[in-house]
Amino acid sequence: MEDNISSAESIINKWDVDSPSVSYTKVTSLFYQDDDRSEALRFINTVKDLQRSLLFFISDRSSPDSHSLIVTAQKLMESAMKRLQKEFYQILSVNRDRLDPESVSTRSSLTSLNSLDDPRSDFEDDIGGSDDEINPDGDSMNQSPVPIQAESDLRSIAECMISAGYGKECLGVYRSLRRSIVDDSLYRLGIERLTASQVHKMDWEVLEIRIRSWIPATRNALQSLFHGERVLCDRVFADAPVSVRESCFAEVSGEQAIGLFSFAESVATSKFKKSPEKMFRFLDMYESISDHWEDIQSTFSYESSAAVRSHATSALLTLAETIRSALAELESAIQKDWSKSAVPGGGVHPLTGYVMNYVAFLTDYSQSLTDILAEYPLQVRAPLPESLLSTTTSSPMNGCDENLSMRLAWIILLLLCKLDGKAELYKEVPLSYVFLANNLNYVVEKVKGTDLEEILGCEWVANHEAKVRQYAANYERMGWSKVLSSMPPLDSGDRTAEEVGEAFRSFNERSRRRT
């Protein structure tokens, strides 16, 4: 044991960062002396031997030199830890770009997510591993050899420092540097930390710019950034207790992840939360989280990351509630449309175009809306004409979610009922039928040209096409009845030529008005 202390002095003093003598070891790296890391391996093994000797003399003070040997060993250990802390910092800093979360995450995909369950499987037992490393599953790891070697060096240093009781110093360096990398990555993605108060004070134009940046940034962060940090943390501290890896990863990525989800929740509770026009942005944000739900659960599976999972759940539920509120607001807006001006010539009403375009866009979010509306079936509060209700909801669905199909059919039904009321604005009954035929035909063609046809079903389309033909027939019957009445009867032999001519002029005049 005394020999271990004596042999440790030469190599540890050689790399002493506080040595007053000028040495090339003060400006170079222990881990980059040679390709096979022999000097680094020797240093690490020396420190381990020194640790065993130190523990021996602390527990057995029978030797008269025990006290002096303990003091010497402790000084050497402190010197060695300073060197390893410096090496740890240098490796992290030098490989900052090569150890970025995206690169780590990509390499991790080659070994599958087994690294999350057994982080030790990605490294060899000693720090002199080959660059052409093969993981237990047989995947080649030589696509990015330098970061792999850097990770191995970091793991060796971390294991040595933690076992020697210097884990706090090691973890402090790691947390500080990796957290700054996460912050920089999110900043480059366009993410800025904002409080709920700041979000709630924003105008929509400004807030929408933030949302546009947040959507792709969140997808990238959940898919690569945080996953890469989890993998790297598990690898570097593979030999440390699980609690160390848990707390380290939580401190590196937890606050930033919570910030992402807090922004989503702040948007969902803003003054725009009931605006139907903003619903599609809310749906985009909802899908940015829900589409990567498995990534959230696996990456932040540690108990120390429970707050992240909680914030993600809260953001998702709040966005869902906001989307349901916006949908209800759309239904209310349709019912409250009190515009009193008739569309010239019985053309398509602006409300028809707005609602049908809106409903058609909603079909792009069918799966998300199915989840959002799953536990909230349609509640009809006001009675509507049975003929319209039965026609609108008669068999559709074609395997689509019935709740979603009923909800979209209900919105269209509200529109058709409102159009019935607007048809009464026309003084001439035949023109009201032109209006109904034109608007319902627009609705049917919109359904047939989008995914709405699959959702509502062929029977819905057929029933409403029949109603279009019925409206057209009513127009022909009522619109031309007065025109035909102006024609002279078949037995008009007793009429003068002037009377017959006047009848034809009246017929032509009424025909022009009808066409």
Short recap of the structure:
With 515 residues, the chain is mainly α.
Describe this structure in words.
- By secondary structure, this protein is mainly alpha-helical.
- 69% of the residues lie in helices and 0% in strands.
- It contains 21 helices and no strands.
- α10 runs antiparallel to α11 (279-290) and α18 (429-448) packs antiparallel against α20.
- The longest helix is centred in the middle third of the chain and has 33 residues, at 204-236.
- It is rod-shaped.
- It holds the Pfam family Exo70_C.
- Residues 213-509 form the Exocyst complex subunit Exo70 C-terminal domain.
- Residues 103-116 have a biased composition (Low complexity).
| Uncertain segments | 110-146, 387-399
- Give the overall pLDDT as a whole number: 80
Order of helical and strand elements: HHHHHHHHHHHHHHHHHHHHH
Instruction: Find the structural class using helix and strand composition.
Output: mainly alpha
The quaternary organization reads as: single chain
Tell me the fraction of residues in β-strands, as a range: under 5%
